[in-house]
Amino acid sequence: MASTLAKRLRRDHYLYLMLIPFLLWYVIFIFKPMYGLQIAFRDFSPFKGITGSPWVGLENFRSFYESPYFFRNLVNTVMISLYSLLLAFPVPIVLALLFNEVKNTVFRKTAQTFTYLPHFISVVIVAGIVTNLLAPNTGIINLLIEKFGGDKVYFLTQPQYFRTIFIATFDIWKEAGFNSIVYLAAIAGINPQLYEAAVVDGASKWKQIRHVTLPGILPTVMILLIMKIGNMMDVSYEAIILMYQPSTYETADVISSYVYRAGLQEGRYDLAATVGLFNAAIACMLVFGANKLSKKSTDTGIW
Question: pLDDT tens digits, residue range 69-120?
Fold first, then answer.
């Protein structure tokens, strides 16, 4: 065993050398900061340091659970993630199927470019675009509503509109085109002979998609679905912070945005670490549960 390992090291030493920077990055920025997780179990003070702050056990967790924001933030996080899963997750799949059926190369590439571009726009700029489009006096949406005889609405101050605006803008318009690349790659990997056999059997385009394309990309869909479920507790707080305001906290305030306010604005680093640790624990359970369910139903999983 030792001799085999030595041979592999000698043979592939350049590859292992190239791996060192990535391992160092993980050690420095992923594993080393885990030492600070104990802040969640201490009455942390920046002046006393981590080890100098008194140990309080689960007191910070109890404080968070008894907080009036706990249930609201948890429900908002789950609801936004579920809506995103139901409404935004299928869109890249549909886009990839549509792009795959377009035969005009120029039109397909042009359409793909326009759908990919929003991904590269800064979240700050997208939030600014949305704010201007929905402005009550000068926004084009309200101008159109007024043109057709309706009353202007300040959408960003109405809690009932926030989730729809957030998902339509950041999860669908901004990311759907870029996310479709993965599915296009999966479609390109399907054996062309399967389509030829389907044509010989008289299958229409719809039946080819249903019986050849969709089963062919199902493993990719399941892997990305597991990853999406694992990120359900990690809503894009940057976009939410840029767009929400106290009047929309009812439906917009999520766990991540609460961590931002508690940790940076109020200086309660121990409570922020507690909420973050709670978030990570739930996400870990979701990943394991989704992976187990996927393995049982489709024999496809991350591990």
Answer: 888 888 999 999 999 999 999 999 999 999 988 888 899 999 999 999 999 9
Other CB atoms within 10 A of residue 43 CB: 13
Instruction: Please write the tens of the pLDDT for every residue from 117-139.
Output: 999 999 999 999 999 999 888 88
Q: Please check whether residue 115 is in contact with residue 95, taking contact to mean a CB–CB distance below 8 angstroms.
A: yes
**How many other CB atoms are there within 10 angstroms of residue 194's CB atom?**
15
Reading the block at residue 265, the tokens are: 């604005």
170: nearest Cα among 181, 178, 182: 178
SS3 173: helix
Residue 221 CB neighbour total at 10 angstroms: 20
| Amino acid at position 131, single letter | T
| Measured distance between the N- and C-terminal CA atoms of the chain, rounded to whole angstroms | 26
Q: How far apart are CA 298 and CA 293, in angstroms?
A: 8
Question: Which pair of tokens denotes residue 239?
Answer: 């976009």
CA distance 291 to 303: 8
Angle at 246 between CA 78 and CA 271, to 5 degrees: 60
**What is the number of other CB atoms lying within 10 angstroms of the CB of residue 48?**
12
* C-beta of residue 190 within 8 angstroms of C-beta of residue 213: yes
Q: Could you tell me the pTM of the whole model?
A: 0.81
Q: DSSP states of 112-123 as a string? A: HHHHHGGGGS-H
DSSP summary character for residue 42: B
Instruction: Return the structure tokens found at 291.
Output: 């992976």
Q: What is the DSSP string of 226-271?
A: HHHHHTTT---HHHHHHH--GGGHHHH--HHHHHHIIIIIS--HHH
Tokens (6 digits) for 161:
């509109």
Rounded to the nearest integer, the mean pLDDT of the chain is 87
Strands (E), 142-238: none
CA angle 272, 275, 276 (to 5 degrees): 85
